[in-house]
Amino acid sequence: MTAVKKNEATGALYDFEDIKLTDKMFMKFAERMYDLAGVDLPLTPKNHALIRNRIVKLLRRHSLKTYEEYWSKLESGGNEMVSEFISALTTNMTSFYRESNHFDFLKSVLPELHRKFGADLRMWCAAASTGQEPYTIAMTACEAQPEMPSAKPRLLATDIDLQVLKKASTGTYEEREMQGLPPVQRTKYFEKIKADGDEYWRAKDQIHNMIRFAPFNLMNPKYEFQHKFHVIFCRNVLIYFDEPTTKRVIDNLVSCLAPGGYLVLGHSESGNVKHPGLKPMSRAVYQKL
């Protein structure tokens, strides 16, 4: 679709494709994204097109005509503008049981963690996106429950993007968003509902009540939580960070793990981990010493 909008005053069509994103403005947006979310966007044709295409949508939304106008609005705007900017430039690719071996591993170690740490099992999904990953973790904990009947697993699910976090907290998905979820788990842990004439799948209380959703920025200098976690999932996030940011984030994640707890990263991120306090267990899974 051509990015064309009608000028309400003159009736003329305004073609957003004619707006040029200069390298100078690109760097401003890229540096702001790095400062806010740690996402590294060097000046390449691919990244230039990504930022241009996504900010054009924001220009249309706010009835602006130039990238400079949007920059001024972003600079003077509040948290809502910043949240919108982060959401526009963040890639949220997720599905149920993505990289499924991690959930097989989780199911196998949860009873061991229960024996070691007791009933209260604390897990953290540090990049919850639209929720498929934390709900998969919750389902996995339920599947492990017969081997740890007295366990009370709890999951904190966080994300910097407030828009996707809001969706995740509803636990409601369209049919196309249920990709990767086996039929047995679908009917066991989700119920079909109707809203505005459309059908959706909604997480049942059994898994929904296990999760607490909250905003969190992995770029925070230090991570401060009341208790250590026994399992932390932080998958497919580090690939967007540069090396110094990756090291700092891993250091902070490890500081939040209980000794003997597990850190789970994305398959493509396992080569980024060089930490003396972690022992590799399987692909992209590490145990804190």
From TrEMBL:
The keyword Methyltransferase applies. GO terms for molecular function: protein-glutamate O-methyltransferase activity. Keywords: Methyltransferase, S-adenosyl-L-methionine, Transferase. Its EC number is 2.1.1.80. PROSITE patterns: CHER. This is protein-glutamate O-methyltransferase. It catalyses: L-glutamyl-[protein] + S-adenosyl-L-methionine = [protein]-L-glutamate 5-O-methyl ester + S-adenosyl-L-homocysteine. Pfam families: CheR, CheR_N. One of its GO terms (biological process) is methylation. InterPro entries: Bact_Chemotaxis_MeTrfase, Chemotaxis_MeTrfase_CheR, CheR_C, CheR_MeTrfase, CheR_N, CheR_N_sf, SAM-dependent_MTases_sf. Transmembrane segments: none annotated. The keyword RNA-binding does not apply. Residues 14-270 form the CheR-type methyltransferase domain. It is an enzyme of class 2 (transferase).
